[in-house]
Each structure stands twice: as C-alpha cells, then as structure tokens.
Amino acid sequence: MGKVYTEIDDKLAKTILDQHVFFVATAPLGLEGNINLSPKGLDSFRILGPTTVAYLDVIGSGVELKENGRIVLMFCMFEGTPNVIRLHGRGRVVEAHWPEFSKLSAQFPVYESTRALIIVELTRISDSCGFGVPLLKYEGERDQHFSWAQKKGRDGLRTYKQEKNRRSIDGLPGLAE
After folding, report:
1. Rounded to an integer, what distance in angstroms lies between the CA atom of residue 125 and that of residue 170?
2. Beta strand 84-95 with 70-76: parallel, antiparallel or unpaired?
C-alpha cells in the first residue's frame, strides 16, 4: 500500500497542492522536550524542486525548528481517493528581515502576519493508504487570523513575536525578531 519516492513527481505534486491543510511536526533533540504538531492552511505551501519544499510561516506558537532542523509535513486527503503523504527532511528558517526572504517570498501571497519562510530539503518522501482518514468537505478559509492580525497592527504583531516567538515551548531559540 505505502510507497517511498525519490522525489516529488508531477502526480504527487498535484495531490499535495490540491490539499487545503497540511500538518507540520518538529521535535527537540532532548527526550524531555515536546513534539510540536501544527496544522497549516491558507495559500502557504510551495514545491521548489523535486526534493525541496517551502511554506510560509505565519504568526503562531511553534518555533522549534532551529535546534536541529528535523521536520515532517503530512498531507491527508480528506476528499477523493484516500492517501496520506509524508515529507520528512531538514528544515531551515528564513526570517522576514533576512535578505534571502524577499526573493523567496515572492512566490507566496503577502500576509501581514508572516514571520518566516521554512525551507525543507527532503530526505524521505512517502505515502500510505489513508483508509482511516474521514471524508470531510472543504467549506473555505477562516478569516479570524487576518482579523486578529489587522487588529494587532504592525507594532502589535512585532510585540507578539518578541513575546511569544523568541523561544519554543521547551525554551529553545526561536525567532530573532
């Protein structure tokens, strides 16, 4: 049922890009640390090459990636043919104030709540049956994130990032700004 791929081919790319939500998991090296699993939505995922992907990281709580780069992205097919695709790899953070950010971010929509881009060099690409994933119907994007960001304003968002994103839930280094 499951298959391991050497790269993201056209068929796999279409399946991944058709999804409205994906999940990202990171974990610290220490056994006492917490695994952080977050859902991601919006128009925030791109395939940069056959073994390289990126996602736009909007303001939220998780910032564990910097310690070791370990990351997995999971796409569940909630509509149509059941399938689960996992993209394992080493991720790196490109913060919004870094020179590299403007070139890379040109491939994404502009969200005032963007805090970074995450670039992932894939080390394992696989799928599995997804038979246990329920059928769910997509109704649209929620607007609460954008309303919240607009209400905070530029200064409020900067303050939020400084207060909430400088350290991970385990106290590891997070975002610089």
Report:
1. 28
2. antiparallel
Helices (H), 60-176: 99-105, 144-164
Query: In angstroms, rounded to a whole number, what is the distance separating the alpha carbons of residues 91 and 93?
Result: 7
Q: Is the dihedral of CA 68, 166, 119, 61 positive or negative?
A: positive
In contact, 118 and 65? CB cutoff 8 Å? yes
Nearest CA to 116 out of 91, 90, 96 is that of: 96
Sequence ranges of the domains in the chain? 3-133+141-164
- What span, in angstroms and rounded, lies between the C-alpha atoms of 31 and 125? 25
What is the per-residue pLDDT across 30-85, written as a single tens digit (0 to 9) for each? Answer: 888 899 899 999 999 999 999 999 999 988 756 678 889 999 999 999 999 999 99
CB 119 within 8 A of CB 49: no
Q: Which residues does 143 contact at the CB level (< 8 Å), separation at least 6?
A: none
Q: pLDDT digits over 102-159, tens only?
A: 999 999 999 988 889 999 999 999 999 999 999 999 999 988 888 898 998 989 988 8
How many whole angstroms separate alpha carbon 7 and alpha carbon 177? 34
> 3-133+141-164, which class in CATH?
mainly beta
